Amino acid sequence: MNDTIDVVINGERRAIAPGVTLLELLGELSLDPRAVVVEHNRQIVRRPALGDVRVAPGDAIELVHFVGGG
Amino acid sequence: MKTETPSRHDATMHDTPLTIGGRTFQSRLMVGTGKYPDNETMLRAIEASGAEIVTVAVRRVDLDRSKDSSVLHHLDPKRFFLLANTAGCYTAEDAIRYARLGHEAGFNDFVKLEVIGDQETLLPDVQGLLEAAKVLVKEGFKVLAYTNEDLVTALRLEDAGCAAVMPLASPIGSGLGLLNPFSVRTIKRRLQVPVVVDAGVGTASDACVTMEQGVDGILMNTAIAAAQDPVAMARAMRLAVEAGRIAFLAGRMPRREVAFPSSPTEGMLD
């Protein structure tokens, strides 16, 4: 039975539920969508569109935010 | 109310505020947010520095403990002008990617563009820098380009549409101070856009000497964050940047290789 799909989040392979949107994925990871920027297969997905984009097997997702720097 | 005529000798009266990319800033000191012992010290140091422009970096969220690792939990973007950087990028392509992510995470169109060419010295890859600058300017970014002290590169960055050019004083995090005042002065003299010295300042005297060259501002991080008392150093830097600016505007006396007495040579006793 195929109840998860493999994706790469911030460089790490993870098994997630199939068919979830990016917004749902952030929820699963306990991340506030207002506090992170999502890059999906090298494309930035703006906040209002996060609920429209579904994650597919093999997708590369980067979740970034601001940290201290010079 | 009677308006007072500003004194011609009060150089600060005649200074114009720093304007970069159409935005005006009261402070000529910009500070980074990296390498502080803790967030509270960082915040107090930034307050003490009087800086308005504060740089931040774009990095992956730590998926295991993401709750308070964002610097935005500690810095109010309404109070500070957050300038995203592309630190750590070694190609134009990476720098462009980070700039876009920073724009999405941030609150303005400004980016401090870094394209590093050498891991040991962190000196910029000027070819990649120019390439990235051109792309980002076309996308509408206000690019503040971290570069070396090379005049020709600085001119090309200006031609590419950069909002400010940021030559280094010495390598990032080295604290060696202003190694090449002549080149920095030359860049300042030849460019129309603001010249902000970025990186290498180690202590207050370095900041003062740098501002005395006539540059428009200084960006620093390690000199404050790695001081034994970052809050006190931040205050020293604020005063040094102001002192250096005023000294520049005041116009220093000419250097002389011989002594010249300050007291009258006449009227001496027999």
Can you give a write-up of this model?
The complex is a heterodimer of chains A (70) and B (270). With 70 residues, chain A is mainly beta. Chain A contains one helix and five strands; from the N terminus they run E-E-H-E-E-E. The longest helix of chain A is centred in the middle third of the chain and has 7 residues, at 22-28. Chain B has one domain (26-61, 69-250): TIM Barrel. Chain B has helices spanning 39-49, 92-105, 126-138, 151-159, 181-190, 204-212, 222-225, 230-250; strands spanning 18-20, 23-25, 29-31, 53-60, 81-85, 110-113, 142-147, 164-167, 196-198, 217-220. In chain B, the strands form three sheets. In chain B, strands 4-5-6-7-8 form a five-stranded parallel beta sheet. In chain B, helix 4 links the parallel strand 7 and strand 8. The radius of gyration of chain B is 20 Å and the shape is globular. Chains A and B meet through strand 5 of A and strand 4, strand 5 and helix 2 of B.
